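dumping this here so i dont lose it
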């Protein structure tokens, strides 16, 4: 019974890992209590309870778990450097609260990765979890469409009733809703969907449901109308060797050519209607404002935030080494975000430099870069994470730590890029003495 209950909670914690629209406090708490923050600790507690009832706390150290040891060490060092920046922070109280949140999601994400690796039927677990995630996601998208059709949209402050803020969408221009499903931010929702894709390609590659789930994820990423989401999704596919292998097959080339020809014919036949519809909905203006780098656009704002981050980091020797304090960015971004405590530099790498200093940045780069050269099959998932964090920052997301921990558990790569380390001269080496 406890085993089945733990399994249900595990499926729910993975499937609802990014569902911050679901507030179990119903808007009455000082923070959003997401399903993950409830289900993930229950999974860990039930696992400990089951092992305690068996009279042993033995935990099998499998090869994937053993390969995660460097990740655990580097993550602990990164968290330690983040904590060390709090006493020197511009806003110590804010930094302490944000660090507790980071520590919680990082630990829970890693624990869920251990549960996935310990599950005998990993394919079934991941397929069920992703299916649950997409089912709930689509329900929320339908609710957002209904709310938008009634003229309800969400603002930056999420004002209004709890029910209204749960189901109302944001918009791209006056006519186009950005459907973000169970996540408030359409950028984050696209990132979570792409991470589900990484889980499917790792653990459910032989599932007969995989093509349907892939197409569904691609459609939902497109409906977010988010530049960061689409770049993350594209980075995942373009860096996957399996994608290029399938692309050069004759069957796929014929399908692509057929779609291109049919699409061109339809575009020529209905050119006036398409242009008129786009002008009536002001789609082109909204999309160009979202994607461009012109003054006043979203792209320019990102560039200005990144420049501010570098300037903040280079303020003094102290900020170069220890930063301004974890999550203290709102103190130097009041002209961008006002009193919004969620203001940030919209770039994980700049955030690490400006808030935690250069040593923390080096540890972060180790966490992100090493799996690309040291783990088989991890390049596509890591490329998606790294590209997304160029214009966003996801280190406070549990799915970030979950997928990162799993990527480190992949088989070691016998890469020539690493073999040269074996030929470096060591103290006492005869080759060094001859030199």
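and the seq i came up w/
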């Amino acid at each position: 019974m406890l085993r089945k209950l733990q399994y249900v909670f595990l499926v729910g914690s993975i499937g609802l890992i990014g569902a911050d629209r679901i507030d179990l406090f119903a808007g009455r708490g000082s923070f959003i209590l997401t399903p993950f923050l409830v289900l993930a600790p229950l999974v860990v507690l039930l696992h400990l309870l089951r092992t305690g009832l068996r009279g042993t706390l033995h935990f099998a150290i499998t090869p994937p778990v053993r390969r995660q040891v460097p990740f655990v060490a580097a993550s602990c060092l990164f968290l330690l450097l983040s904590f060390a920046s709090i006493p020197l922070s511009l806003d110590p109280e804010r930094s302490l609260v944000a660090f507790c949140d980071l520590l919680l999601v990082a630990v829970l994400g890693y624990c869920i990765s251990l549960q996935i690796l310990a599950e005998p039927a990993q394919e079934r677990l991941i397929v069920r979890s992703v299916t649950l995630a997409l089912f709930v996601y689509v329900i929320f998208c339908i609710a957002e469409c209904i709310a938008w059709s009634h003229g309800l949209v969400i603002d930056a402050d999420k004002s209004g009733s709890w029910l209204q803020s749960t189901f109302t969408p944001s918009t791209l221009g006056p006519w186009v809703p950005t459907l973000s499903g169970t996540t408030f931010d359409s950028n984050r929702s696209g990132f979570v969907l792409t991470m589900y894709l990484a889980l499917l390609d790792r653990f459910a590659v032989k599932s007969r449901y995989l093509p349907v789930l892939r197409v569904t994820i691609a459609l939902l990423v497109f409906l977010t109308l988010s530049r960061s989401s689409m770049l993350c999704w594209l980075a995942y596919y373009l860096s996957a060797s399996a994608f290029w292998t399938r692309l050069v097959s004759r069957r796929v080339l014929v399908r692509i050519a057929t779609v291109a020809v049919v699409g061109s014919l339809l575009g020529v036949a209905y050119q006036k209607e398409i242009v008129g519809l786009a002008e009536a909905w002001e789609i082109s203006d909204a999309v160009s404002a979202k994607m461009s780098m012109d003054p006043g656009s979203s792209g320019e704002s990102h560039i200005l935030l990144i420049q501010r981050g570098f300037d903040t980091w280079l303020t003094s020797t102290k900020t170069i080494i220890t930063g301004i304090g974890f999550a203290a960015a709102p103190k130097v971004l009041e002209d961008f975000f006002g009193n919004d405590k969620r203001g940030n530099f919209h770039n994980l790498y700049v955030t690490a430099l400006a808030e935690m200093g250069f040593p923390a940045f080096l540890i972060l780069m180790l966490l992100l870069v090493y799996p690309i050269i040291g783990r088989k099959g991890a390049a596509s998932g890591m490329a998606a994470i790294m590209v997304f964090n160029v214009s966003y920052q996801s280190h406070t997301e549990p799915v970030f730590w979950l997928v990162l921990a799993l990527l480190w558990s992949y088989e070691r790569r016998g890469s020539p890029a690493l073999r040269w380390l074996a030929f470096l001269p060591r103290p006492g080496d005869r080759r060094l003495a001859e030199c």
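Residues 86 and 92 are 5 Å apart (CA to CA).
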